[in-house]
Amino acid sequence: MAGKFKSLKGQLLLDGGNLRGSFFHRTVVLICQHDSDGALGLVLNRGSGNKVGEMIVEDMPDKLKEYPLYLGGPVQPAALSYLHTDHFLLNANVLPNLNLGHSLEGLVEIGESFSATQNVRVFAGYAGWSPGQLDDEMKREAWLIHPASMDLVFEKPEELWQLILRKMGWKYRLLAEAPEDLSWN
Fold it and tell me: Residue 182 CB: number of other CB atoms within 10 A?
């Protein structure tokens, strides 16, 4: 008998050392949607080296154009997504006060608002799983799970993978501190 479906929405998935050679090597993925139809997530710690304004030609506030653009995953690399947080977001759909959006109009609206407490991160592409695929990867222990928080979602992306592994305890600290290329040992 199949076990009860457990949604991973609002969780972080970390490469547990088994994804070397793939797009997901040393990544931290925020699961934004997960149900019987599959899952959608955003890689939080993979910069594109570009600013939003270099990749999106539409008219938008200058402040938004200067934001760094992150690579959300290998699926539809031209697709726009963003994570938006503020002290009180009624329409939050990932975590309390954290919203996933895909529309350029919505992003421009956020960029034009004068809220000093909001935070935005913009992504190109996303990580997607077909029905049952993520569950199978979890059974194979391809990923480690860690609860998401606003601090982690908007943390310095370059250090995020190592930072979370160190928080998870001594067993994972060794993985966090292993050299990128094991052939150096």
Answer: 8
